[in-house]
Amino acid sequence: MGQTATNDIQITLPDGASREYAAGVTGFEIAESISKSLAKAALAIRVNGELSDLSLPITGDASVAIVTRKDEDALELIRHDAAHVLAEAVQNLFPGTQVTIGPTIENGFYYDFARNEPFSTEDFEAIEKEMRKIVERGAAFEREVWDRDEAIKYFKDKGEAYKAELIEDLPETEEIKIYRQGEWLDLCRGPHMPSVKQVGTAFKLLKVAGAYWRGDSDKAMLTRIYGTAWRDDKELKAYLHQLEEAEKRDHRKLGQEMDLFHFQQEAQGSVFWHPKGFTIYNQMEGYIRRRLQDAGYKEIKTPQLIDNKLWEKSGHWGKYRENMFVVPDEVPNTEEDGPVVSDKAFEKLMALKPMNCPAHVQVFNQGIKSYRDLPLRLAEFGCCHRNEAHGALHGLMRVRQFTQDDAHIFCREDQITEEAVAFCELLQNVYRDLGFEDVAVALSLRPEMRVGSDELWDKAEEGLREALQQTGLEFREDPGEGAFYGPKIDYQIRDAIGRTWQCGTLQLDFNLPERLDANYIGQDGEKHRPVMLHRAILGSLERFIGVMIENYAGKLPLWLAPTQCVVATITETADGYAEEVYEALKEAGIRVELDTRNEKINYKVREHSVGKVPALFVVGEREAQEGSVAIRRLGSKKQHVEKLERAIEELAAEAKPPF
RNA sequence: GCCGGUUUAGCACAGUGGUAGUGCAGUCGAUUUGUAAUCGAAAGGUCGGGAGUUCGAAUCUCUCAACCGGCACCA
Q1: A592 and A538 in one domain?
Q2: Angle value at C-alpha A205, between A40 and A158, nearest 5 degrees
Q3: Catalytic annotation, pick one of A80, A186, A204, A357
Q4: What domain range includes position A643?
Q5: ipTM associated with this complex
């Protein structure tokens, strides 16, 4: 493109129109040249895709878009500015508090502060009030570039050690940018809106939490204040409502309300499954078992307690033993006051298995395997124990004892792709059956530190990539994110309220077959190393059930519902008929309960609805005479009457598991 | 593991130094009811564990634990 004689530049607008401006024109000037109202509404500008300050000069040809409150981009700006306002408010109210960093996050922002006295949510009212004052005052954001050493000195003198450290660690080439809002200023990359006024009023502080400086558990613990900010009060209200809704589907709450399971402190992090919860568990396990059988897997069961020598050999002892439960292998002392075990006991230790793979290799290693035996797919509902940090435990989502829908595929290098394809298809079918349509896939490639030759990695990565392409799955590639022992594919499902969960995984392992000396006899009569694929679809049965409960807000599909149907009577004159209905449903394989209590039908309907029973068969004198039932389904306020036989047929058909 | 919060009847919660309360559930009694809570009665507690301060502690202090919100961790 030829430049015009003067220093003019070409600015392309989102509608494709192109205009000429003098070089150094600012975003604000561009907005103003388009319309006064746009200039007034403008918050920032996108220059060649990059969000930038309105006040910055544009020096070359660019395509730009003025950002106003109507744009999604505004959220990012509002939240970032709100974080600055929060920091100023906190420093106004609590002198001596140091500021550190305050980025935007999904749905909001946070700011980390260093202060001897931690904040409490009781301080929120005062902080928010101060924030509103600052916004109301509406100081303009002013961008300045400072000399590095001066900036460091300034923050050090001010007692802001963290900010000084941040500047010291910035690359030499980086400008030291300072944003001023009235009296207050902060080191910041930007961009910001023209003034704090534009933060608006639709923000709210949500919670305080501890957070390590620079995310490093060896460094100081800071106090983090989380907030949310939106373009208007309506958006804020909607978000707060969404938070409340998410709280209502919390699987821990529903688990108690629906009498599915409990935890108690004598077995922290391990589930006590109640009859209803275990019904769900068994249905899930049965479903996966049928799927695996159909896909050519052989199910096995391996020991819970294994000598640490095997874990030493597999490498787990060296790497993960701090998370393993270790048991001395000795008959305990029966003397009441004596030590439970002698010191000698520690000569032999057993460990509860934290994973199944070494045990599966032991099964593979029995007898001589021929290339004709491959691929060998060994599956186990493997119960594993991991000594998770106390603070990590979270309902069913993070437990110390869990059951994986685990399997290991032993195959030849040339079988990687077809096995990966088959797995991707199996996984997609399972997720679809369980109600998850939206799956995000990531292919993690070789890290710096790794075992195995580059040729092997080339082959493996290409094998997985090709498999994903063949299955037609969209995927993202993450270079450097693979495990040291091989590349992997991670699958993330999205639930009904938009949260994502990483459940499925397919990991290639070049390490373990080597360490545990797995081999097979090839066509050439020589010994070869098999490739090992670790794979799981649900991941942990416990966790996946938690995800299912939250995804369905407790209203599980019929085949998983612990109680599928309740037969409820209107008065005791129908008791005899209700009993017949109940028996017939049981006969048809429906998990059914009979409710002949002396209660009003309103009471029964409410109770079973709250209990999330999917189908309610109400019988009174009328139904007894007609041989029918009045059906009321969960979530509906209406009911319809049907002949008993037909009603059972329909319910039984619907109650059939998807596979 | 770290920071903060919480812990009172089966569940949800009130009670800030002076005899432990409410609602629901459960039990008993009455009611026989047509699609989201019928009425009444009696009963139910080592106030998370331990130690301390005090004439006196659910309440104040210390300590341990569990849980909750984050952080760190997640083979």
Answers
A1: no
A2: 80
A3: A357
A4: 565-654
A5: 0.95
